[in-house]
Amino acid sequence: MALLNILCYPDPRLHTVAKPVTVFDDKLRALVADMIETMYEAQGVGLAATQINVHQRLVVMDTSEERDQPIVLINPEITWASEARVKGEEGCLSVPGIYDGVERAVAVKVKAADEHGQVREIEGEGLLAVCIQHELDHLMGKVFVEYLSPLKRNRIKTKLLKAQREDA
Ligand code: GNR
Ligand code: NI
């Protein structure tokens, strides 16, 4: 097991479009285990492979209170989204310390494989629905700040670049 480094916005690698996973082997399962460990360590409810600079369609999530119900979505596709939408406060492990409102579908269904290649469909609402949509955006190279106004986004960019400079 190992902790993985999480890319920080505005790192251009966060805009890479992920490719489907084609091989379900022990190497993939080891990566999934490391991503779950990294998500728990960072206290996130989800982590997309894009965020750890692996550009494959793979995400892990856990929206449970006890943080003991990890969900693995490989090659996920949204098969249904409710017409009802709601604006909620979002954050992102790749955009530390920034929270803002994003409008999303209230409920979604997602078809995805697990780490053994077993395909199933999951329905999510509330935080799980938000998380599914947020993570699938990452796989398309999209970060939630791209839903905000250019003014807000530029302020966030400047702030994070400054913080990264001071860190280095
Ligand atoms: O930990 C996270 N919390 C969160 C809160 C509201 C909406 C979305 C999220 S996802 C985020 C983890 C993350 O960055 N996943 O990509
Ligand atoms: Ni995120």
Short structural summary:
The protein is α+β, with helices and mostly antiparallel strands and 168 residues long. 28% of the residues lie in helices and 26% in strands.
Would you mind describing this structure in some detail?
The chain is α+β, with helices and mostly antiparallel strands and 168 residues long. The chain contains three helices and seven strands. It has a five-stranded antiparallel β-sheet with strand order 1-2-3-6-7. The protein has a two-stranded antiparallel ribbon with strand order 4-5. The longest helix has 18 residues, at 150-167. The chain starts with 25 loop residues before the first helix and ends with a helix. The model has no long low-confidence stretch (mean pLDDT 98). Ligand GNR binds at residues 44-48, 51, 90-94, 130-131, 134-135, 138.
Q: How many strand segments?
A: 7
- How far apart are the first and last residues' alpha carbons, in Å? 27 Å
Q: For the residues shown, what is the average pLDDT? A: 98
Distinct small-molecule ligands in the complex: ligand GNR, nickel (II) ion
